[in-house]
Specification:
By secondary structure, the chain is mainly β. Helix content is 4%, strand content 35%. It contains 1 helix and 26 strands.
Length: 385
């Protein structure tokens, strides 16, 4: 993406929901004490000055790796004294084309840009002099327009899974787009695992069933309240999740719906809310949080960009029982403060986004990290009785 186009997108977002934009691409971040969490939970800043922090991966030696979308950088965050606060934020790669996706395997960091899959070997021992990346694949499926950024993770089968978004708001998908694909670690044997997925920017495998769960962003321009974003389960390969014919499992598309009924696609296990932009997610397997959180899905809602009343801007929890969601509730809220009006009677009220959650990652001690690509920081959520 050119700098001119990036600036145009930022300007559009600023107009759409009044982001307090700065030259660093972020808003004045909400202080952790102003965020709302259930009783017993606390939020602190793990790292700041992480410009446009997006997807996260943890190295075997404890280094946190963070991708970005528009900053074009990949970060290594080090906590050497184990006080759960970053000692250093190191830029290990820059000038990349939307390096959103990051994943670890055998000490190597994989980075997915819009069109390349890169690998940084033995990276944790070389943070101050990062090696030139190995180009694992330089022809990733690339929509070129629309949802070009990728999310990646290694599955229980040791294959690399990758999201490929649609080329548009709603249209007939091009081959290898609007899908989750997978490949061998060397980039070979690329294949579609699941399709009919408009734009997934987060997935994880259930701790006991090992089935793939993923978020999916619904289409725009059908109104404020339709369709919902989705939490889905790809319980086997080859499933279709509806796009562009059906949305949220039960709403036919006005343009394409007559071509394929909703009954032919997999319905979501949970409707997540309209336009909330649910992206990064993880299954919670730790013991720090209350037992009810075990095997729950923790989901980052990045927040709406064109809804009349903004929605999302929080971190949610979907409690699960095998392939069902039994409860859906907030974990961290308050990234979008209450409306403030400069005009009498409330007309012209604005809401300033002070943070936009992007991804969730669990640390070995059972706490979780939340990346905030507008606040340019990583937050840590802990629990104490």
């Amino acid at each position: 993406m050119t700098s001119a186009r990036r600036s145009a997108i930022t300007a559009l977002l600023c107009r759409a929901f009044v982001l307090a934009c700065t030259s660093a691409g972020g808003a004045t971040a909400q202080r952790p004490t102003q965020l709302t969490v259930p009783r017993g939970f606390q939020v602190s800043v793990f790292a700041d000055s992480v410009r446009n922090a997006r997807s996260m991966a943890l190295g075997p030696l404890g280094t946190l790796f963070v991708g970005s979308q528009y900053a074009g950088q990949v970060y290594a965050i080090v906590d050497r004294n184990n006080d759960r606060k970053a000692d250093r934020v190191i830029v290990i790669a820059k000038g990349l084309n939307q390096p959103n996706g990051v994943a670890m395997r055998n000490g190597a960091l994989y980075v997915a840009t819009a069109n390349q899959l890169l690998r940084f070997d033995d990276i944790e021992r070389r943070l101050d002099s990062p090696p030139a990346p190995v180009v694992v694949r330089d022809n990733l499926p690339n929509p070129r327009e629309g949802h070009t950024w990728k999310f990646i993770a290694f599955g229980p089968d040791d294959l690399l899974y990758m999201s490929v978004g649609s080329t548009c708001n709603v249209c007939e998908p091009a081959p290898m787009t609007a899908a989750i694909v997978r490949m061998k670690p060397d980039g070979s044997n690329l294949e579609v695992f699941a399709d009919g997925i408009r734009n997934s920017v987060g997935f994880d495998w259930h701790p006991t069933t090992h089935e793939l769960w993923f978020t999916d962003n619904g289409r725009d321009l059908m109104g404020d309240d339709v369709p919902n974003d989705e939490l889905n389960v790809a319980w086997k390969a080859g499933l279709n999740f509806g796009f562009p014919f059906c949305h949220q499992g039960d709403v036919p598309d006005p343009q394409f719906g007559a071509q394929r009924p909703c009954s032919t696609s997999e319905p979501p296990v949970q409707k997540l809310g309209a336009h909330v932009a649910a992206i990064g997610m993880t299954f919670y397997t730790g013991t720090m949080f209350p037992r009810s959180y075990r095997n729950s899905v923790i989901i980052a809602q990045h927040g709406s960009w064109n809804r009349s009343t903004p929605s999302g801007y929080r971190v949610m929890v979907a409690h699960t029982n095998e392939r069902r969601v039994t409860a859906y509730e907030p974990l961290v809220d308050g990234f979008l403060p209450a409306s403030q009006s400069a005009a009498a009677g409330g007309r012209g009220a604005t809401r300033v986004a002070t943070g936009r959650p992007a991804d969730v990652l669990q640390l070995p001690d059972g706490s979780i990290l939340i990346s905030d690509d507008t606040g340019n920081r990583i937050l840590r959520v802990t629990y104490r009785r």
